[in-house]
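Re: folding output
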Amino acid sequence: MTRELECKTEAVLFGAGESVTVAELAQALEIEVPAARQIVVRLAEQYERESRGLKIITLGDAFQMCTREEYAECVRKVTEPKRRRGLSSSALETLSVIAYNQPITKSRIEMIRGVDSSYSVLKLTERGLIDEAGRLDAPGRPILYVTTEEFLRCFGLTSLEALPQVNNENNAEENGTE
């Protein structure tokens, strides 16, 4: 039965094409959540041990099957005929502000950066690196932005807690809370 559950887990992760929460996986396999977690962790370790072309990554409380970094270029040659350009420095700066201060409004991003960020926010949204997460309960009800799972994938992070620590003195100065 264990081998069959591993095969089903592999099929679900491959077929989904995006991250699958442990709860969703447990529901699909018709087993308890701890058992589903144990199976996917064991499967990920097996992929790692065998140095397969694919691997299973953790994204918060979800898992995703993806290509190993060393084979990504081969896959890109087939799936992405035209290479995407990297992010501009202003987009990277905007993304950093969002990652460390989320949820955050565009006006707060602009206050921290000191420049208009409309274009960067638009481009980051188009790329799926940030998303709207509701609205602030304030006049005008501004949109709140957060990073996405695509952000975690692109930067090789398992969760937001894996972000590098920043100097708190600089944050205090920017936030006016010295």
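--- second protein (sequence, then structure) ---
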Amino acid sequence: MDIAIDKVRALIVEARRLEVKEGDTDPDSGSNAIDDGQTDVLTSSTMDDGVEREFRGMIAGMNEDERADVLALMYVGRGDFEADEWSEALELAKERDSSSGHLVNYLIGTPNFADLLDEGFTAIGDSFEDTGENPAPDPDDTMQKV
């Protein structure tokens, strides 16, 4: 993989934060947060939402290869590919439009995408153990190419 291990982990954490958001509970609320007991704090993610902005910013800060890795991780986590089929998953991910805006919308629209990323990441890490390779990061904190 071309993406740093810490970057994948941070992306999964942000994805989980984003997934806990609920739909609008009070869409026509005119009250302030103090008066309504902070009921709108965990509601609907919008472009004004700091959690979604952070997640979008993380994806936007990635290069094309890193975004393809994220998409391929989701394919593996979803079961479209096995860990030993990483090169095929990555090839498909590179063929797809993985521009930052498209990828964010695709991920957010995929149910349980944080779990899928995590499962794909775990499967890829397990594949290193099966081959006897060391999944530890290089000095620049990236994984060896699969």
